[in-house]
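User: quick one
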Amino acid sequence: MNAPYSHSPEAAEKARILAEALPYIQLFHGKTIVVKFGGNAMTDEALKENFAYDVVLLKLVGMNPVVVHGGGPQIEDMLTRLGKKGEFVQGMRVTDNETLDIVEMVLGKVNKELVELINQAGGKAVGLTGQDGSLIRAKKMLLSSKEDLGQVGEIESIDPSVIEALEKGGFIPVVAPIGTGADGTTYNINADLVAGKLAEILKAEKLVVLTNTPGVLDKNGKLLTGLTPRKIDDLVAKGVISGGMLPKIGSALDAARNGVKSVHIIDGRVPHAVLLEVLTDQGVGTLIRSK
Amino acid sequence: MNAPYSHSPEAAEKARILAEALPYIQLFHGKTIVVKFGGNAMTDEALKENFAYDVVLLKLVGMNPVVVHGGGPQIEDMLTRLGKKGEFVQGMRVTDNETLDIVEMVLGKVNKELVELINQAGGKAVGLTGQDGSLIRAKKMLLSSKEDLGQVGEIESIDPSVIEALEKGGFIPVVAPIGTGADGTTYNINADLVAGKLAEILKAEKLVVLTNTPGVLDKNGKLLTGLTPRKIDDLVAKGVISGGMLPKIGSALDAARNGVKSVHIIDGRVPHAVLLEVLTDQGVGTLIRSK
Amino acid sequence: MNAPYSHSPEAAEKARILAEALPYIQLFHGKTIVVKFGGNAMTDEALKENFAYDVVLLKLVGMNPVVVHGGGPQIEDMLTRLGKKGEFVQGMRVTDNETLDIVEMVLGKVNKELVELINQAGGKAVGLTGQDGSLIRAKKMLLSSKEDLGQVGEIESIDPSVIEALEKGGFIPVVAPIGTGADGTTYNINADLVAGKLAEILKAEKLVVLTNTPGVLDKNGKLLTGLTPRKIDDLVAKGVISGGMLPKIGSALDAARNGVKSVHIIDGRVPHAVLLEVLTDQGVGTLIRSK
Amino acid sequence: MNAPYSHSPEAAEKARILAEALPYIQLFHGKTIVVKFGGNAMTDEALKENFAYDVVLLKLVGMNPVVVHGGGPQIEDMLTRLGKKGEFVQGMRVTDNETLDIVEMVLGKVNKELVELINQAGGKAVGLTGQDGSLIRAKKMLLSSKEDLGQVGEIESIDPSVIEALEKGGFIPVVAPIGTGADGTTYNINADLVAGKLAEILKAEKLVVLTNTPGVLDKNGKLLTGLTPRKIDDLVAKGVISGGMLPKIGSALDAARNGVKSVHIIDGRVPHAVLLEVLTDQGVGTLIRSK
Amino acid sequence: MNAPYSHSPEAAEKARILAEALPYIQLFHGKTIVVKFGGNAMTDEALKENFAYDVVLLKLVGMNPVVVHGGGPQIEDMLTRLGKKGEFVQGMRVTDNETLDIVEMVLGKVNKELVELINQAGGKAVGLTGQDGSLIRAKKMLLSSKEDLGQVGEIESIDPSVIEALEKGGFIPVVAPIGTGADGTTYNINADLVAGKLAEILKAEKLVVLTNTPGVLDKNGKLLTGLTPRKIDDLVAKGVISGGMLPKIGSALDAARNGVKSVHIIDGRVPHAVLLEVLTDQGVGTLIRSK
Amino acid sequence: MNAPYSHSPEAAEKARILAEALPYIQLFHGKTIVVKFGGNAMTDEALKENFAYDVVLLKLVGMNPVVVHGGGPQIEDMLTRLGKKGEFVQGMRVTDNETLDIVEMVLGKVNKELVELINQAGGKAVGLTGQDGSLIRAKKMLLSSKEDLGQVGEIESIDPSVIEALEKGGFIPVVAPIGTGADGTTYNINADLVAGKLAEILKAEKLVVLTNTPGVLDKNGKLLTGLTPRKIDDLVAKGVISGGMLPKIGSALDAARNGVKSVHIIDGRVPHAVLLEVLTDQGVGTLIRSK
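Assistant: Done. Structure below.
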């Protein structure tokens, strides 16, 4: 009798890798995965397309991905074109009304580009800001230093009903970090904060944060993983995680503390980083477990 | 025995007007009403708030309003600020890639402002462009004159599923007139065209178009109403409707021809014009019946 | 350019009044409103038609009206025609078996007339007695004075499932105040008691009671409003509300005490009194809040 | 080993009869059975209770019984008490407005009694007239002889939505034969006509008509069964069914002609006649098949 | 007028017996009835057909029968044919791997025969073992005597979701007593244990156990009934129920202790024993109430 | 800044292969895939486990796999153990009643083993024969040669309702090829026939048949693929496909002719052959398209 036709090493390898995905697909079926999209991945065309692809695949295998994005570099570009100079206090952009207009317009454009990329990859994405369906209620962020950040907001509450309506219809929500006050005032909010809080309110299984580093690093640049909120406190106390690393993981840590089962700070420069993180046993950065 | 307490003329008047609304509410219950929002009503704060109010009231009494808006004046403003000069061919803005970027950003901002106004009036609005949920598939508009309009599109098809998902969730869709080609290219589309086509695809009961005139006027400035597609052809042939009036009603006429039961071209400068048109026997412009 | 077409004072007034209704429609959307229909409004043809109109409008704008009616004058008429003389103890009609037969027949006829009026106004009404779907379980009312009222009942329990089935189908229930005992015996029940108890069991937002007075009056005939159960106790103790006024509000007070958010005792002689009360800021009588 | 405990003849007989019901329960599961209740069965207390019992059992085993009743004897009684004398033209009661009032009141009372009996037997019945939910639209019956029957109506159309809403809620509809005109006028309709037409509109599996005879008899008083519309025409032509028998089966014949699969004219004097007809192979009268 | 046609004694008797079933059908409507099928009833063709008939009838009148069967005699037959000799410890069959193979195959065949009989009677049955849908999780039964029973299992847990899915589709589940361990090992389980535990987990109204005796008998062979767990303890203590009778009712007693409202140990040799027990007031054995 | 952490070739390969699966998952989402399980794959433990794994993965990514299996080798084994000798006519096993008993028992055992393997892989499988839910109605297969095959059947009709109920509950149906006649007689049916017919009735997207060859081969042992029913006819006419190959693809060809979009005859000896076929662009045998 004939030898099996496809007993090629390539076929065996493909079968092995697909089969490796099974337990992850089972584990995260029907679960919400919030992905913070940012950093270089937002400006490299190939990485962006990979990212859109990954999100569509997660949706197809039964998870509910929710994407949150920022727009730092694009906002900077536009301000420059318009002859405005960005001013920062404690790492946050001072946002006067004119700047806010520009922030809103740029985030709107970035949002629709991402929506379109996901649609091109075969998904059905819908772009949202915190205004749509009154998703994000915000208030003015007040600094203890009394410096005025202008229209920079912090989150007061989240009403997830528009996200739920879209998920029921099979759509992938893509969220720009704009919120509104009770009186209709618009606020610019840090995208990490929005991703973390959304993950918490949506009882997400995972929060995946794309960065431009391999993950959380110790003072010597060595990757740390398998962390918990408690262990991080410990490492900070011991000086293993230096202060400069901390802001990167602030809202991720909050999410882990408030019930999001696992938070991943991963290297957005790796092609298909999200897919590797969620569907393989190939770690791509730092894992923080809720406990 | 005591005289009735509230037999005041004011009460009687209120009761009469509310009661007058009943047959309209019955007639249009569960029906879709597409409203094209534009003209002065978009720049006058009080008129904008009235408009938001009207849309929320229609939703509450059981209709399904869908809002489509343009952004002409705001786009003009921004182009001027950026030192660009608009160029027009056959009344349509020539849209190079840089202009398209600006159009998208401005429409995005206008969209969210309208969403926020409706939310402030107690509704639950969600802003969309034709990209969201692949709502509007477009293609490049080609002129017989061979002049190149750049990224100006015409509608190829409409997939209403995102609007249906939002309506099922009780949300009011607010649509900006952007579409995408099969390859993901973005197109700027005339808002009247989008409103007319959406009304057709959604099998709307009514298309209400807000303008800056009292409606369709004859050569002497007299308002015409009670029209049908056939009567309009006749009036044009007879020269009663002069050429200058026709472009205003082009897509409205198409909608009437394609099954939208009634099209209203109304005076957006009248406060609560939509409410008066839909819920009272007070005509506010020109009515075109499908037959 | 032309002046706005409909900037007439009349249009402005209409728009203002319709817009005034919006917050009430929002507030009471999906809420149950029990209306006790009685007094002159039941015998004046124009008032009856107005009432039917009001009920249909409430239904259309998203509320769930439930109508309860009595039939005092019509019962008296029929007894007179049949040569029977009504006998009363403590204000309640002594109801022997023959009288009960007549009460049932007259209430049945009144019920269907009201159903028909509502249908003519464009609603879909269904008449019920407490027998239908075992809606009202009753027992014989026993007086401490030991006098026998015959087949006069008090309410033991209410099974709202038939009302729920009809509301799910879009129908307006119209209830005649007849109940049955565990053994199938029929009882005549006071319509105010039925309205109050139904409002309580259905967790109604409002109980609206139509009377022939402007509302609850003090000793000098001045209208009292903004009451609470506690304030009423106080006014009675102080003699401001005289004893003669109290029976009028007995079951309304009970409803307010048992969770019905607001009870309105209004002047049924005012045309469209229900509409004015529910949809305008025009008060039409006495408001009793649950607290 | 012990002899089987319950091998008594009585147990065997019970088992046999219950088992005999199986194929009928299977056959009519989920099907609508319209039952015209009338004749002696309406005045004999034991027969009435049996009837209520039968209806509840049909409902429980999965069928959808709909009861239609008349009220001839009870109307006659009341007219006599009120000193009015019934007048008949072509077997139909001339119905002036006063008579119509009485007909409505009496039918209402009969209706509620039947509702109560079914409730006492463990069912959940709801009484309806053709006014409820605009069930029966009627018009004045005009005789070719030009004699005026007053408010006697014939059926124009039936809107079964109220019956469907009640069946969805598990209720048994009990219908009194009153209809209304487009203008709200009330008409007295023959109960056989209502039963036949309802059976047709509800696509009933069976129409069961209770009478005071053993069924359809030939000239010699012999019971006829296994009929079809065609065979009946034939028997009438041959004079086997005499003219006096025909009016009894008029509307039954119409129902059979219009798609009701089987019509049964059965002897209402037999206890549990409905149960025997539907659940056993014991024929209780005349069967007319649609073809 | 004619005498009623079917006033025959036979008709009256049929009507009486059918009417007698009404309260039982009402009482058990929508309730789960677990039936343990076993003993002679499994080998006598007529009794088997009767049994299938009874199960279909219960389903049709609105109950949810679940059948559990054993296969003792059929297994014995097959072992004999294969030249294997059964070995028993404490009344349980020692089950080596080869025996287990045979047990599974025979139970599979018995299961499908029963499924087919129910289908022939007009039902829609689906056969299951504890493997299907992971219905029964089992573990090795360990004797205190340390003797090894081989692959005999006891129940660790039950996942009723496959039964629920089938009932939603209108199917009758027929369960063979096989379970699996966490590692996939197959176990042979006593059918009485499975029936009792299923009744408990499914919150069954009744557990009906068919045996070859008239029920639970005292030392003199007299049938005992109206028992409770407490009364049984008492009777055993007093020696009224001899030890030999106890194993017969072990799992039945457990079910009664764990919330199954009534347990019936009935004589499977009586034709239609299940029907008589559930739908008539004809007792067919021993009733044990949960309290 | 740090180099991306996981830019390893292995990660890139994994990402590439997972991403390759996306279009297949999209294409076959919600579609039914019938898999005929047979040949060596049924007797090699590792291949069996791989197969179970593949089926669970297809289910998880949103497809509806339905498994059909035969049992040839296992039946042969058992017959030998019981001292019976298989007899074949035209390649089909002559099946007397005793043989049928054994076929049923063996298929039942094979069925449950497969169910258990799928459950162990994390799926929820339920085993069925054509008797369950009256899935397969069969009749005796009659040969033109008049030789009697005994209880060998062919398919008369399929009632897929049990499969639909199980799929609604998230279960994977595993079907053994047994059918029943109208009179309840059991028939042994060829598993390929059952798989083909099920694929047709369930409007399956794909029928995947596992064999022990690399696929359909030409006379020189070269694999043929990209076939259509028409091309096969042609190849047979030309003698390219020799007669000996044809029976292998008979029912597959029928399925392709009757609307199953693609039929795959694949090499069951390749590990994870099903996964490779459905989720990669790695062909594993012969593809027959419906047109």
